[in-house]
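Hi everyone, sorry if this is the wrong subforum. Our group has a chain we'd like a structural model of before ordering constructs, and none of us has done structure prediction before. Sequence below.
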Amino acid sequence: MSSVYKNFFCLEGIDGSGKSTQISALEKFWTEKGIRVVKIREPGGTKIGEQIRSVLLDTEHKDKMSDIAELLLYNAARAQLIKEVIKPALESGCTVLADRFAYSTLAYQGYGRGLDIAMIKDLLKIACGDCFPTKTFILDIPVEVSRARQFADKERTGADRMEQEKNDFFERVRNGYRKIAEENKDNCTLIDATKNNAEIADLISELVYG
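Answer:
Right subforum, don't worry. Here is the predicted structure as tokens:
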């Protein structure tokens, strides 16, 4: 998957990997350098997308939502986000900084749920078209570290439907992300997210802007 856009960057990883921390740091750093940044998260970012997000993450749907329904809902929210936010921002010269994008679908619904990878890639082509991150940074941490960080986060209000999955699911997701990074070295970088936050932010900025 490739993009015709040059200023679209994404951070991926399992929960607790530090995506939100890094995105906030990068947004501040780049903005101070005069770079116009539009920050997004998935799923969500539009009125339609936020409604889909509430359905996807609602714990009332645990063990009820089919894997295919989950796959299609994530991509419906993504297609809307591209139309309403991402493409207009990129076409106006902004840098887009995403908290998850298409590789999360490969990792979670493909490797995590066990859905057919080729089918997912075909669906992503439909949902994303020519709009795909220039570079994706995958923040890699062990699942036990992820769980410990989530438990220590005092601002958390409880686990959503996806976060309630068992450790073996997240092991598959983590290994999926690592495989994605290995197979897409031209636009993916795997980063040890157990490192110092400032060190990670400096590394990402250097890889993006030199």
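For your construct planning: The chain is about 55% helix and 10% strand. The longest helix spans residues 67-91.
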